[in-house]
Fold this sequence. Notes:
By secondary structure, the protein is an alpha+beta fold. The protein has helices at 11-14, 29-40, 47-73, 86-98, 109-120, 142-152, 155-167, 170-181, 184-190, 196-215, 223-242, 246-265, 272-304, 317-320, 538-554, 595-620, 627-651, 667-691, 701-720, 722-725; strands at residues 332-334, 342-347, 354-361, 371-376, 385-389, 411-416, 422-429, 437-442, 454-458, 474-478, 484-491, 500-505, 516-522, 528-530, 577-580, 589-591.
Amino acid sequence: MPPATGGGLAESELRPRRGRCGPQAARAAGRDVAARAAARNPKRPARGSRRFETASRWALLALVTLLSFATRFHRLDEPPHICWDETHFGKMGSYYINRTFFFDVHPPLGKMLIGLAGYLSGYDGTFLFQKPGDKYEHHSYMGMRGFCAFLGSWLAPFAYLTVLDLSKSLSAALLTAALLTFDTGCLTLSQYILLDPILMFFIMAAMLSMVKYNSCADRPFSAPWWFWLSLTGVSLAGALGVKFVGLFVILQVGLNTIADLWYLFGDLSLSLVTMGKHLTARVLCLIVLPLALYTATFAVHFMVLSKSGPGDGFFSSAFQARLSGNNLHNASIPEHLAYGSVITVKNLQMAIGYLHSHRHLYPEGIGARQQQVTTYLHKDYNNLWIIKKHNTNSDPLDPSFPVEFVRHGDIIRLEHKETSRNLHSHYHEAPLTRKHYQVTGYGINGTGDSNDFWRIEVVNRKFGNRIKVLRSRIRLIHLVTGCVLGSSGKVLPKWGWEQLEVTCTPYLKETLNSIWNVEDHINPKLPNISLNVLQPSFPEILLESHMVMIWGNNGLKPKDNEFTSKPWHWPINYQGLRFSGVNDTDFRVYLLGNPVVWWLNLLSIALYLLSGSIIAVAMQRGTQVPAEVAGLSQVLLRGGGQVLLGWMLHYFPFFLMGRVLYFHHYFPAMLFSSMLTGILWDTLLRLCAWGLASWPLARGIHAAGILSLLLGTAYSFYLFHPLAYGMVGPLAQDPQSPMAGLRWLDSWEF
């Protein structure tokens, strides 16, 4: 085989080593290859050669890092207005600075870091971040953008180091770094106040740490082994703490760990004590450490966001009692529910609100023409109800009557305080939800009929048979029809004031929208207690936060005038996203991948599947090949297989998701496809050079191929860089536009 060119390592470095390309890559198959190669060339590389290789590695790493930082920080201050989702994540950074509680569908770490970056750079949290296009003016926004650009700048160096360790080839690592440095999509995402560069930073850090830890497999329990194993756990916690997409890289590390332990289990030279140490180390560093750090981010999140804010209504009454400024904070009310109490009843489902009624009737043709019952998100006098016994109209608040507490299984009436009508249901169909029964307000001055009777049930009875404010979860079962009171969450038409539908469902399965809790509680005959003693514990609010986040993720809807996309669009770079501007007079930024990079990545995936299958079949059949070819084949299968698995894990799950999807969701997978491209083309070019060894110019094939790919990638960036750095003037559809010839697909709208 010709000597490695174009920055490649010596042939001895190309052969797989223990743990170098996956979990102890090429341990079994590589031993025979290495033995034959050692027999042919027993001499170690010269010391000067090794020094040159080391210097080359560091020099190229410095070059890659410099280029990455230069491209990410160039024109970072433009445009000086809100772009795309900066309106969300910049606002959330402000909430942290102001300690105002809010709700988001993602875990808190990314937003906390953005808020911290803003605070440390002098931003005071007063900018409103209302809508894209609003100018920042005198507000300090560069600290938050700079922080995201800083983390985004490390993607290319991390990919360089990862591929270098997987392939032992400088040219493969350099090509990978160039693909990411000169990709307009990665560049755009890194220059704004977004979660994506933070997420991708932790994903790549986890991947690099895992590969480095694998490379230390022949030195278990050494300082580098512990360092990289621990750093893998820290990076996993960071990825999951930014977005739940971090679960995909956790799965990849988990599969790697299982394969690693399975190999060790088959090594009969290891004692059971040693195996126990290996297992314990991985449990501590890859399970306990990430969980502890992930939980700690929520502890800090709850500690910092201590003031009432726009996120209160998404959470339970008990949760809201923690927040200063909320009407439940430091309030004093009776602890246990008694007959005659005036109460509000809140649904446990997110964004449903309080059981509500008003004097308006259901219109003709909508069930019985009786008083409407709805749920309403805001505090209101029409949310107040009086709880009474079902079989008496006597006043329980009469001083001559003893206090009688409401208990699990009691038959009750709920009388609307403002209108004196009872909560009522019957066999008429609900306004919007088929096969559910209508719920109305019925009766005069509390006098109605047997359809006003409800059995109150305490779910799980964690706090006993009594009904405890804030804490007890209750269901109301209609005595006549057997249905359970709930809210469908559907918005009523204008006749229902666009409040939410309340129904009585015959399906008795326990769901959050049919479970309620008592929030406000007024009863002059009962002593008050501070709600502080009823506040939930940290594990309870942690669990509730995750339930609300998952519910919110599943319910995400597309924004106005914004294009959603489908997963099959993403690898082909079918359609981008407008970050800023629409008209020819606007400063326009368009999120679109560099088409040369993306289509090369797509081609590489197809070529890898083809070539990898051929090589795997040949090796399985025992085909005899020279040591050099066997070594390169192992690099392709092991190293390429690692990153192909990463691409699959970060891409295919989106086909199963029911939530709204956007183009930027593909970028973590794109990182892995770029690493695969670097490994594949470097290996294929080396195999071509070996196959054409008799040809006089064979020595230059690898160098020429790598150089062509590097120059082509750089030139394509020169052509498409206005997408990331901003365009002004005619749109690409206009023949006079400088971008007119670059609109290669009609679906590109720049």
